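User: For my dataset I need records formatted as: sequence, then structure tokens, nothing else. Please produce one.
Assistant:
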Amino acid sequence: CISCDHEAQAALRVIGTCLATGQAAGLAATWYARHGAPPGAADVRAQIETILGPEEDRSG
């Protein structure tokens, strides 16, 4: 729980989105560097599994 004015509250609402976007960008950059792949050639499914774990682990 946090107490703040409306201006600060607006900023707080986007923190989670910013963190997730930054994590995804960092993981994508790591994937490109490890595989020597050009931008746009990423295996999106592999990146999702890196973040969330294998799909079979998420089905329960």
